[in-house]
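[step 3/7] inverse_fold.run input=structure_tokens len=134
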């Protein structure tokens, strides 16, 4: 955990630290409430004393919640579906495990990546040409 410098509302520098906390099954994300939203961000509003949020994770009022990872091992289909549907309008990062069939699939993956790379180069070149930067 490395401290990160950030500017406060008053223009003073303050130290902030990004921390990753992991829950165990049954501990979940309970014992605290949040506030905010939109451009403001989501912040911890209140932490119940003697809750896992207080005891295990040392959450504090005012902490900003940057992201939450929900593990899909042993999750019910209905729960996974709801989570994915609710997350649709937001930026999402997936962690995947994939079985690769063989040489043909590897070649397909490579050719698809190469096509995307070439297409991106064409788009960037066209944008630069139209903006007069070339």
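[step 3/7] decode complete -> sequence:
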């Amino acid at each position: 955990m490395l401290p990160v410098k950030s500017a406060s509302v008053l223009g003073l520098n303050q130290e902030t630290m990004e921390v990753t906390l992991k829950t165990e099954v049954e501990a979940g994300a309970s014992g605290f409430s949040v506030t905010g939203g939109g451009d403001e961000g989501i912040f911890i509003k209140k932490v119940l004393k003697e809750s896992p949020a207080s005891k295990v994770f040392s959450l504090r009022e005012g902490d900003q919640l940057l992201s939450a990872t929900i593990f899909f091992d042993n999750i019910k289909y209905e729960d996974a579906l709801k989570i994915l549907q609710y997350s649709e309008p937001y930026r999402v990062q997936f962690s995947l495990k994939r079985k690769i069939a063989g040489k043909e699939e590897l070649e397909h993956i490579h050719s698809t990546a190469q096509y995307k790379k070439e297409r991106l180069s064409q788009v960037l070149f066209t944008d630069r040409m139209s903006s007069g930067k070339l």
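[step 4/7] annotate
Residues 1-11 have pLDDT under 50 and may be disordered.
Residues 3-97 form a domain with the Pdz3 Domain fold (CATH 2.30.42).
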